[in-house]
Amino acid sequence: MGNCGEKTARELVISREMQDEYAIGSYKKAAAAWKNGIMAAEVVPVSVKTRKGTSVVDTDEEFSKVNFDKMKQLKTVFQKGMSLSFLRYVYSYFCSSPVKLVLLDGTVTAGNASTLNDGAAAVLLASEAAVKEHNLKPIARVLTYADAATNPLDFALAPPLVVPKMLQATGLKMTEIDQWEVNEAFSVVVLAFLKQVGCDPAKVNPHGGAVSIGHPIGMSGARLITHLVHTLKSGQKGLAAICNDINNLEIVFILSGVRTPIASFRGSFSTVSAVELAATAARSAIERSGVSSDEIEETFVGCVLSANCGQNVARQVAISVGIPKSAQAVTVNKVCSSSMKALAFAHMSVKTGYRKKVLVAGCENMSQVPFYLPRSEIPYGGTAIIDGLVRDGLEDPTLKLPMGVCAEKSVKDYGISRTSQDEFAIQSYKKASAAWKDGLFAEEVVPVTIKPRRGTEIVVSEDEEYKKLVEAKVSTLSPVFVKDGSGTITAANASSLNDGAAAAIVVRGDQIPEGATPLAEVVAFSESGGEPVDFTVAPVWAVQKLLNQTNMSVNEIALWEINEAFSVTALAFIKELNLDPTKVNVKGGAVALGHPLGMSGLRIVLSLAHSLPPGAFGIAAICNGGGEAMAVLLRKP
User: Fold this and answer.
1) What phi and psi values does residue 365 have, to the nearest 5 degrees?
2) Is 227 one of the annotated active-site residues of the chain?
3) Which member of 4, 336, 363, 406 is catalytic?
């Protein structure tokens, strides 16, 4: 981490002298705080039993060890020539473009960095109701908290990123913060904080910090809070911030991911259930991952139209592929975002350490969705049959409108012409055709073998929908949803009804089999919501949130996948985010390939993962009925 600190020192021009002076000040402030009894309220003594008897430790040890005369004579610790392992670490995990590393004189020493230490801190939290019920006397009130992330090499610059979030959440101004506690992992961390945030240095770590007191890694966050609440006066406000590094234990990877071909409505998969399609994809994903099925601890499967599929599609898939029956399985329905949400659940489960290896899938067989009959007594004269496809998949239940009618509103809102939509659709078909011709789907798509009751087996190894384009007819088709002369959405420039499945194995960093290269790192997710009628533009909101929470810009994203529920979805997405169209859906999208509802969220993630160059970042986004959307940020190892 010291090498990362050196990077920050160089970029912000923070000299060795500045860091040494800061460290000396930290030691002096800590000594003064102990001398003046400021630490008395927060520190409790520890009795230590040894062979020689019991001793009581009631004072910090590190601050008394300083020798100011030797501070400036100390040699730098990290910038003495970077190790090969560090260089490999940089290139393997963080670099999305070629990087030139120049070895310069170092600035970080044992004197101006935090030390290795032992200690513990604890804070008791209680609700307002509990305070009243038990007549408690709180010493501080928690107003809000926030976190932020940046490039791991810039971890020392992360603390300033939380400040705007905290101030915005509370409505406070920076001048209203009476005391700041910033963890002194290195002196350069606090100096960078002061430089970027611009707060009053006299209010930052007024009683010393980790450089002089010590930095027991698991304790430090709680120590900052403990010190802050004990030193603030009544009515004052304080803010504590701490940076942390990153390691493979906390990184979540897609180890492998594949999909079936996407079949047309009532096409090749009309006799193959959604469960069978998902099981086919899952078997291949497991086989490619190098992980055994009996190691998988949980299964999440996105499926929207599960009527007549049987109980819990995810459980059926898990059992079909040999996952232990003791493992849990959950079927997820978030309409078109279902399988991306399944991936998000897996990400959370793995990142928190709850699970180590998880199967994620998304599936749909729209050809097999049944018609519904009401269970109530059928009246004289008969009753209406309900189309399950429409009722549970293609109609907004609150507006009682087809999704295409909602999409027509976005067409008007963004001024997108019928011609633009038709042209986009034609390009989607052409990109899909070229991708298949050039073998770009070879690693992504696995064949499905169909065993009919009679005759020989049939192997489906290629998407069916993209082959149906008759370019000359696209502009002649009548609008499907709005037929008063103002409609623009047709069967050609909207996605179609289809069947297919996708699957992936999600693991924690330390669970990657030896010699294996993960397909992608799952960096972050975001979700958004708004008016149900505006669902087609919700992906824009999700991406804006995702970029904000990861502190990234549009220009840092190498490739984009946006689910083409309708051509207008992608066109509005490109327009609103000001994207380079050549970086969007490079192998075609749902307009050409098809849109099996429960499959699509994971399909675009895997298509993106297979397309990204090493080290690059990519974003996949998808809208779903009800006015919502999801987005995910990937990085190619």
Assistant:
1) -120, 95
2) no
3) 336
